[in-house]
Amino acid sequence: MSTSPLVRPFHALRPRPERAADVVAPPYDVVSTDEARALAAGHPDSFLHISRPEIDLPAGASPYSDAAYARGAANLARLVDGGVLVRDAEPSYYVYRMQMAGRTQTGVAFVASVAAYEANRIKRHELTRPDKENDRVRNIDSLSAQTGPVLLAYRADVALRELVRAASHEPPLLKVAGPNDTVHTVWRVAARDKVEAFSAAFDALGALYIADGHHRSAAAMRVAQERRDEARAEAVAVSLGSAIPHAAGAGHEFFLSVAFPHDEMRILDYNRVVRDLHGLSVDQLLARIGESFDVEPRAAQAKPPQPETFGMFVADRWYQLRIRPALVPRTDPVASLDVSLLQDRLLAPILGIGDPRTDARIDFVGGVRGLDELERRVASGQAAIAFALHATRMEQLMAVADAGRLMPPKSTWFEPKLADGLLSHVLD
After folding, report:
1. What is the pLDDT of residue 283?
2. CA nearest 113: which of 39, 203, 46?
3. Residue closest to 76 by CA, chosen among 149, 13, 19, 11
4. Residue-range domain boundaries for the chain
5. Cβ neighbours of residue 411 closer than 8 Å, sequence gap 6 or more
6. Which are the contacts of 157, defined by CB distance < 8 A and separation ≥ 6?
7. Which of 153, 214, 261, 416 qualifies as a cystine partner to 182, CB 3.0-4.6 A?
């Protein structure tokens, strides 16, 4: 096991409390450029000007251009220079609560160790796409900061629950309504004894689990590796040799994170739409599906009532599909996932979707958008068929990660989402 601390407190860059409502923004990757532009219109201090800076460039400008990254850095500097964003003087933990639709989850913000991530003490469960990872590397480098927190989970822990409860009884540092009617509340924990207690409680955990943010954490590791290489090259240049270790406490050796106990987290379904029927008629499609699934037409939307059932919308009609129990490999934590069952028994062999990470014929729709969005995609002609899935469970995610395995892409949609702009980690 790595001797590096699992997590540590940090000097957060954050909005002044009275400016938090002007700054708070949805995560960069849940809005398109057009949606970001509309949300930021008339809001010059919205963090979208930093996370989606192409909105300040001429229409059609690439979000991956040099100009976009430079504009993001300039916009961040503007908010800092104007006093909209301030940086805490003492390293702190931040208790972070989200309330949405009557549900509450409360976690802790910190910076997590890149070394622990490399040692698999911070466990991942998904592959990353090179283009998205490269984008996050350039984003971090251009800002010299991490502004999008990684969402982590930990197995519910009595000591951490008590520390979080005590901190959240104090007056909050920030409280702001964010996107999707989610209220974000942040408490700062700066007293040395309490900071040490949080550090000890987290370090006693066996592992942390990446829930959402695989590209951000992978990009943070790459930035750390690049800066280590630069430091070694500089050491060689002054004849110090390469024996000087990288600075273990440097900002680039940690990445911005918020962790919640697993029993408070909520995973929604992550649904699929496919552009065409792979040359099949509807009758031929139903016949092929019937080889592995029980197929039942439905008069209304077919939201899956339990695992191993699926809703399907095609030719203006809903069907409920139930995979035959004998086809479920229950001892395999990956192959037994509903997303795997759908992919392996229907999407690949019947609709010809080979690799859902790269196949342009498939798209993914977060469950927060509801089944109406699946109907809309098909009715509009954007897709020929849609599938509604039952949500993956947190216990399944952790079992896959503990086994050192990977989930299929787009297996989980976490809701509510962490906000961008409330806490950032500056890479000193």
Report:
1. 98
2. 203
3. 13
4. 7-267+416-426, 270-390
5. 125, 126, 270, 337, 339, 392, 397
6. 201, 204, 205, 261
7. 416
Mean pLDDT of 41-65: 96
Six token digits for residue 353: 């979707």
Q: Any residues with CB less than 8 A from the CB of 13 and at least 6 apart, and which?
A: 80, 85, 86, 87, 145, 423, 424, 425, 426
Q: How confident is the model over 78-95, as pLDDT tens digits?
A: 999 999 999 999 999 999
* Tokens 């964010």, located at residue: 178
CA separation, residue 320 to residues 63, 300, 305, 316 (Å): 40, 10, 10, 14
**β pairing state of 270-274 and 317-323:** unpaired
Where b means 16+ CB within 10 Å and e means fewer, 92-130 reads bbbbbbbbbeeeebbbbbbbbbbbbbeeebbbbbbebee
pLDDT in tens, 156-177: 999 999 999 999 999 999 999 9
Residue with structure tokens 């499609």?
285
Query: What DSSP character marks residue 420?
Result: B
User: Residue 1 has what pLDDT?
Assistant: 43
pLDDT band at 347 (very low <50, low <70, confident <90, very high): very high
Phi-psi sector, 335: left (phi>0), alpha (psi -120 to 50), beta: alpha
Q: How many CA atoms lie within 13 A of 197 on its CB side?
A: 15
**Token pair for 239:** 């004849």
What global pTM score does this model have? 0.88
> Residue 230: what pLDDT?
86
Where would I find the H helices in 109-157?
Answer: 114-118, 130-143
Classify 270-390 by CATH class: alpha beta
Residue type, 279: G
* Residue 368 exposed, middle or buried by CB count within 10 Å (0-12, 13-18, 19+): middle
Q: If you search the block for the tokens 């469960």, which residue do you land on?
A: 125
Which tokens go with 263? 């029993």
For the stretch 265-314, pLDDT in tens is 999 999 999 999 999 999 999 999 999 999 999 999 999 999 999 999 99
The arithmetic mean of pLDDT across residues 11-27, rounded, is: 97
